[in-house]
Amino acid sequence: MKDRFVKRTLVVCLMGYLGLTTGIAFAQQGASMPGMDMSSSSAVGSSGSTSAFKAADQKMMEQMQAPSYTGDTDKDFVAHMIPHHQGAIDMAEVELKYGKDPEIKKLARNIVKAQKEEIALMQRWQAKHAGK
Fold this sequence. Notes:
The protein is an all-alpha fold.
């Protein structure tokens, strides 16, 4: 079960990363993610969770654009995946604060745990390969 969850998480993250690399122009134009209209007109009503999700999206997109590409695939992947994973944590925390469904809240807790572990792994990898 855990292996399947980790594999599914990695696939989702890779899809997000690939979406970032093909959709960076959209992000630079102010969209939080390709295909996601984060303007206030697209939100149904106004709630604390909507504002929190928008803030998490904006933070993630800014941080994903911050590292410059080095040409080293491994280093570039890790550098851009860390903020992507942090964005997943931030969004899961919005769910934990505002969500009501116990199953989805459990999913959010699992996401926080898994993404923190993966961020720690990537940071250890970065430290190990910093001078290479």
